[in-house]
Amino acid sequence: MIDLSNKAAKRFRIKWKDLEERSGDFWKVDAVMIGRVPMLFIVHEYTLFTLVRRKSMFRDPLTIADEIVQSCPWYPIPATPSLGRNGNRMLTGSITEMKRMTLGLYSPEQINAMEMSINQSLFSYLSTDRNGYSKPFVAVESYIKGRTPWR
Q1: Using an 8 Å Cβ cutoff, are 126 and 133 in contact?
Q2: Could you give the CA distance from residue 130 to residue 150 in angstroms, rounded to a whole number?
Q3: Statement: 2-144 belongs to CATH 3.40.50
Q4: What whole-number distance in Å separates Cα of residue 62 and Cα of residue 52?
Q5: What's 90-112 look like in SS3?
Q6: pLDDT band at 52 (very low <50, low <70, confident <90, very high)
Q7: 54-106 pLDDT per residue, tens
Q8: What is the pTM of this model?
């Protein structure tokens, strides 16, 4: 359910090459420094719904699943969360664009306080070419109903 980028795996002291490469209905976790604070971008592969959290909130990457459950009750959590590495290059490119858009604009505190508006602006920018949705909640609603153009 959770796929780590190479940077995120290093932050958690996990050998990225030892993880199984996969793509599908997973959450991609990538690490980035914002100011002097390590942050995690947690992005749902199909909807691009994005959570931005401080890395210090998580000692183990599997605890990210608990955060996803609390923040995204629409996502069907598997009984046993698993770790892998991302195999979706398009998703990696989208996350790179997210980093570019947020790095110089917001402090870690602003990101936490404005997460929904940042998510809205990131999503509207990224989703136009990806899936045709203009709002993250429309994509989530379609995902819940099983009506996604990429499945």
Answers
A1: no
A2: 9
A3: no
A4: 16
A5: HHHHHHHHHHHHHCCCCCHHHHH
A6: confident
A7: 899 999 998 999 889 888 888 887 888 889 987 777 777 677 777 766 666 66
A8: 0.74
Contact 1, 77 (CB under 8 A): yes
CA dihedral 78, 82, 83, 85 (to 10 degrees): -60
User: At 9, is the secondary structure helix, strand, or coil?
Assistant: helix
- Domains in the chain: boundaries: 2-144
User: Which ranges of 31-106 would DSSP assign to H, the alpha helix?
Assistant: 64-71, 89-102
Q: How far is CA 12 from CA 99, 105, 138, in A?
A: 20, 26, 33
Q: Given the structure tokens 């379609």, which residue do they identify?
A: 142
CA angle (108, 113, 117) in 5-degree steps: 105
